Amino acid sequence: MPGKQERPAGSRKTGEPAFLAVGKIRRPHGVHGEAMVELYTDFPARLKPGKEVFFGPKHEKLTIRSQRSHQDGLLLGFAGLDTPESVGSLRNQTLFVASKESPLLPDGEYYYHQLLDLVVMDDTGSMLGTLTDILETGANDVYLVTSPSGTEILLPAIPQVIKSVDLDTRQMIVHLIPGLLETDSDQE
Hints:
Blueprint: E1 19-29, E2 34-39, E3 52-55, E4 60-70, E5 73-78, H1 84-88, E6 94-98, H2 112-115, E7 119-122, E8 127-135, E9 142-146, E10 152-156, E11 162-166, E12 171-174
Parallel strand pairs: 7-12
Antiparallel strand pairs: 1-2, 1-6, 2-5, 3-4, 3-6, 4-5, 7-8, 8-9, 9-10, 11-12
């Protein structure tokens, strides 16, 4: 998506989360205390032995003991949990990393949490609403913008539509290509 990133993506500003979800611990695997982890991150390499991660709603600390690829996820071993029973107690827990340790993204790329709640304006200066959700599709993401009246607009996250993102002012400028908004002529 076009736009210039003015600050490191991993930096923490007021309102940004302290932790980012990177996966879900699914089930024990094998007899050495490894757990199958479903990945939510595009950066699985950061889940390496020695790395501190956190789990559950209280963000309890774990240290990764081992890591290896398995099917569509990772098998992770954690320090102090070396049996299937001990790692089984983590089943279905969300796995987090500290957001301050998030990898920097290239210019024009953003983490979802940075985009949510941006004020969305069209390129003529009219306010469309607030970005309230991001839908992942096969071709490109789609941004759900909710107007103050509750009307929802779906905007494809493509360069022809998303013109700029300014995280400091919390605004996104978009160009409305034909067909994105319902008009009176659409209802004839």
